[in-house]
Design goal:
The protein is of the alpha/beta class. The chain contains 8 helices and 5 strands. It has 2 domains: 29 residues; 172 residues, TIM Barrel (Alpha-Beta Barrel), CATH 3.20.20.
Length: 204
Amino acid sequence: MKKVWLWILILIILGGLILWFWDFGKNQTMEFGVTFSKPQADYLGIDWQKAYTATLDDLGVRKLRLIAYWTEIEKVEGKFDFTDLDWQVKEAKKRDAKIIMTIGRRVPRWPECFVPEWAKKLNEEEIQKKITIMLEEVVKHYQKNSNILMWQVENESLVNWFGNCPVPDKEFVKKEIQLVKNQDFRPVLITDSGNCLFGKNLLN
């Protein structure tokens, strides 16, 4: 019986290796980058600008995911302030670093969904309208930045088991994606957690 289980284990390992090399081992290269989060640096009590430049200079990172946190760029309803995010984009461009810009309500870091205080009193329909306005403003603001390679619309948008977020709304996410695609020529990236089955259908 032990021999049978041993052969089963060997076959599983061999099957895994075959799949690994089939998917990743031929004619493909893995490129790594980092996600930088100003709110996370603030939470840790560190100088976010020093942390950011250290990421670029000490670590030599040239592939970045930056985040247009709604709570940071529209602290007052209707008044957009891109000062801190502009600085991040500018410093990346100085070093020829490439950027994926994440936009939306659900973006990296806890609590996953970032809603300004003024918007928390609104109902979901009203919040979604405000999100579309915010998306338009962000894309319009950064359209001329050539070091932004693509837009990530929301982060793990259909995950329903993690974060302080409303129930996922697939149709609204599709509208967000289409809005960004209508405004700009760059590709749109979407992500899931590995537990979401709908990601491939969102871009159709």
